[in-house]
Amino acid sequence: SIPIAFLGGIASAARQGIVIKGANYLEDLSKADTFVFDKTGTLTEGEFSVQEIYAEQGTEEELLKIAAHVESYSNHPIAQSLLNAYDGEIDKDLVSNIKQIPGYGLSGDYDGKRIHVGNFRLMEKYDIEVDEFDSTGTVVYVSVGTEYMGAIIIEDAIKYRAKWTMKYLKDKCKAVLVMLTGDTRSAGYAVAKELKMDYAYTDLMPSDKLEQLEDFLTIQDDMEKLVCVGDGVNDAPVLARADIGIAMGALGSALAIEAADIILLEDELPKIVDAIKISKETLRVVN
Ligand code: ADP
Ligand code: MG
């Protein structure tokens, strides 16, 4: 049977928008000392804004127009940012033969030409020679056929009170803080450095995140409890692997919510601290 204090803890968490799927997670959370975070949409807003456009061929307007048209078939946060930045109308009929590659970007036929829109890895995949940018922003490369057309630099903002949350975990839980991201080294490290995280693993394919986590765990021999926090479909395997998987935001991916043990209804990082406080208080009452 479950001690009454646990039910009280779960109920009080629920009132604060924290859904806990079982009493054992509340207990484990009080011992959490290793926290693994996804970057985009978890530590950052996941709402990118266009900072700069470099057109190698044609004009900046054309480059953005073509990229936005192809991205109109994607629901990635990057796609939304390019569509927001593009002023004109989107004519979806101008684009056909869309091929999305998770962790890379996507391709489509536009005006009779094959267009690739995505990261450096995507360009490498199609043997397209580009000027590689070293930016703390996320670089979206665009090519027409195998010819480099230009790049769009977009920037994502670190979430409100992310810094405060990381500091709390470090100071009060003596936690080790880890980031796993599909984004580049320069973009990932910029966020990890700002948040004073201990480890950052970047350039991960969606399918590589779990393997990287297992690798990391081999060096964490005296770990008590592992918490993983994410929002996307890509994060589901990692959330399932954790002692406590936390899904951010009720509007996050259904798969992440399913795989998680705790769901934060509001997309707010300090809710993790609230959950820890409730778990410690509950354990104090029980013991
Ligand atoms: P994260 O792990 O940070 O949440 P994802 O796995 O969703 O990131 O994406 C990894 C990388 O793949 C992105 O940083 C981006 O470079 C590229 N990418 C994915 N989807 C798109 C897209 N629709 N347009 C352009 N680039 C994309
Ligand atoms: Mg994400």
TrEMBL record:
Position of the signal peptide: none
Protein location: Cell membrane; Membrane
Superkingdom field: Bacteria
Family affiliation: Belongs to the cation transport ATPase (P-type) (TC 3.A.3) family. Type IB subfamily.
Name of the molecule in the record: Cd(2+)-exporting ATPase
Lineage: Bacteria, Bacillati, Bacillota, Clostridia, Lachnospirales
Boundaries of the shown chain within the full protein: 284 to 570 of 620
